[in-house]
């Protein structure tokens, strides 16, 4: 093999080895934790695993984490488990008081949530501590609270655990009858359901009871039986205990050689298994055996080893304790900091809230003040404006009245001399036709037609002032609408024919006799049809009417020049023309439509104009009509 190939293979081997070790580590690390379980539960399992392996500070840290998680997730069960784990670590390191405190807390929580496993384990632990402290009464108090001893149906394993604990306790306190009673119970039980673990513990308790009763040989035999169970099940740790118990028994019986034999074996196993506390007990026992065998040299050598082991154990324990105290201190410090920062945060929040409230109040005050000022200012201005408008309206109305009066009076005053002028012109034209020359006659004719024109305008003005003041007298009578419309068309037709325009008349109702003010309707039609002819230069004019119940609708449509939409309303008010220039081509006073609309209103109807510039105008007149004379007379009043 070439050197570089060799190095390559070596590298691959190395990598493979690392991967293999790593995967083994992963399996070992996570095989205990069940990944399906919640995080806090996994932490508790891990803490227990550390505890079993003697890594107390890791166990403590993990249990603290589990506790925090359980609190934040609200799992009471796991909180109890974590407290129990914390207690176990404390107990192992000699902090008995702290251990008791945490076990009791865990017990209370388990009891509150009815967690039987939690209750059983904490009760066992509590009684175990008191047993070590040799407070037998206290230990008994907790054992007696075990659910299985209070009639709660529990699995056989839990029952034997409880019975065995009682056997041990009653043996120690020399209440042998009771110890025997529970040993018979435990015996029947494990015989019926056969569990090696339970059997081992039963045999151990039973053997200690027998030894208490001075039945040493039988006790020794039972310890041996318990060893056989441990061997069969590969309970190595338990085998060490069984051997130690046998050694103790041989020692008590004075068989020192036998005792040395079994204790030696136990020591070898305990060293392999790293069972420090068991080793300590075994060394002590062996030292005592050597003393009895007068092997002083070996005894003193063992004594040194005992001291060393004790130092190691206590040194380790002191180290772990210091580490745990450090963790405790850190946790406490973080908690204090957290509480302080929470307090600070709360204070800050309160201050901010107060500040925000103050700002809000100020803002509301300022806005209210501004709104108040604006409102006050607005009210003052509106009031002023209203007063101003009222007085302007008043003035305008007064002016309008004055204008109407002047117009009326002037028109009235003008009418008499004008009638005189027209009348005299007529007289000259009829009587003196032959006496004056032709040019004078033409001038007289001109005077007459101008007079008539002027008279028409004056009549319009008078009509307008009448209709505005509501002084129109209505005289309803029966007449034929077709005849009336036809007559009006006939009068307007010459001008239309002159402009080559056709006036079409259509009626959709044959009931042409109506009751209405004929003269007024005629006046309206003259105005509207006259306008249509006046303002149409090509196309046609159509006049139509129809009746609907008690309503008459007339429509006059032309294809003339049209009216701009923005002027329609003003035209209806009067004195307004689309073309108001001095050079306008069409004559008129600008009053016809306004008078017609006022008459329509006086008759109880309305007049509407729709027009589009350059396309034509449609005037719609709607009027109420009466079925009989009586109704029409009532309406007149
Ligand atoms: P006038 O005596 O001036 O015709 P009117 O009140 O009848 O008075 O009409 C007012 C103005 O409305 C007219 O001068 C004209 O500008 C406009 N007008 C009325 N009817 C029509 C129409 N059919 N087509 C176009 N313009 C019209």
Instruction: Give the bound compounds.
Output: adenosine-5'-diphosphate
What proportion of the residues is helical, as a percent range?
over 70%
User: What is the alpha-carbon Rg in Å?
Assistant: 64 Å
CATH fold descriptor of the largest domain: Heat Shock Protein 90
Mind telling me which CATH architecture of the largest domain this is? 2-Layer Sandwich
Q: Order of SSEs, N→C?
A: HHHHHHHHHHHHHHHHEHEEHEEHHEEH
Q: Enumerate the strands of the largest sheet in spatial order, edge to edge or round the barrel.
A: 2-4-5-7-6
The number of distinct structural domains comes to 4
Backbone shape: rod-shaped
Beta fraction: 5-15%
Please, what is the CATH homologous superfamily of the largest domain?
Histidine kinase-like ATPase, C-terminal domain
Largest sheet: 5 strands, mixed
> In terms of structural class, how would the helical and strand content be classed?
alpha+beta
Q: What is the chains' assembly state?
A: single chain
Please give the number of β-strands. 7
What is the helix tally? 21
Low-confidence stretches: 31-35
What is the name of the CATH class of the largest domain?
Answer: Alpha Beta
**Average pLDDT figure:** 85
Q: Would you spell out the secondary-structure blueprint of this structure?
A:
Elements: H1 3-31, H2 39-52, H3 56-73, H4 76-92, H5 96-112, H6 116-132, H7 136-144, H8 156-172, H9 176-193, H10 196-212, H11 216-233, H12 236-253, H13 256-273, H14 276-292, H15 296-431, H16 438-468, E1 477-480, H17 481-498, E2 502-507, E3 513-516, H18 518-534, E4 540-548, E5 551-558, H19 565-573, H20 592-602, E6 606-612, E7 616-624, H21 629-636
Parallel strand pairs: 2-4
Antiparallel strand pairs: 1-3, 4-5, 5-7, 6-7
The structure holds adenosine-5'-diphosphate (ADP).
